[in-house]
Please model this.
Amino acid sequence: MLYDLTVPAYANGLRALSAQLDKALAWGAANNVGELQFIAARLAPDMFPLAAQVRFACLQAVQPLARLGAAGAPALAEDAADFGGLQDQIAATLAWLDTVDAATVDTDPARPISFDLPNGMAFDMDAKSYIRDWAQPQYYFHLVAAYAVMRHMGVPLGKADYVGYMMQYLRPGTAPTA
Model:
């Protein structure tokens, strides 16, 4: 159950983020917006820049599964300095997600999960609550923040860029023609 709620969703979101970054890089080249401008761009002065949002999206896909017992997580200690680095972080995370064993993650949804934040806050909850109430919201927050930074910079992204993986479920003959 926990595997099905995490690994496929994380992979879908990270693949979409990778495609958004490709689109941003191409748009930036055509509109004189350099990689470093994107890397440093942020939505508000007290928010992290795009490079951190991408790294945090990857971390938020890795940390919950590692806390649930998945081994061999990639090290994502620093923000990338360019789009190649952003894509490398996403690729490393996706490659690791492919190795995560469902049986390890799904052992017991009631097992205790504890974690501390750098600011000193500590949380204790069961695995199911952890995934539902912490892991998923954290992951999607950083995924959306990265998307929003690129939109803020002018990249013509839309909802289809965010959830492009949904096209696999599209009923034939129902796509808009105009």
